[in-house]
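Dear colleague,

Thank you for sharing your sequence with our group. We've completed the structure prediction you requested, and as agreed, I am returning the results in plain text so they can be pasted directly into your records. Please verify that the sequence below matches your submission; if there's any discrepancy, let me know and we will rerun it promptly.
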Amino acid sequence: MCRRQQKAMNTCMKQYATQDEQDSAREEWFATMDKRREEREQKEAKKKIDEVFWREWWAKDPNEKPGQTGKGGP
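Please find the predicted structure tokens below.
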């Protein structure tokens, strides 16, 4: 979420929400904190895997035919 929109939402909550609504929102935020952390970790892991893939992809020899095992060998 963009910082500006988050600040606008928080300002609106402080101005118009009842204490029960604020407590409910806080409770929901803390309840889903672990889920958000896991999603962030999964996204980082995928990013690292993708980075390795693309490094290998761009390091390929363009003259190599599909099925060749690379340098050397029979």
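Summary note from our side: Helices lie at 3-16, 19-31, 33-58.

Kind regards,
the structure core
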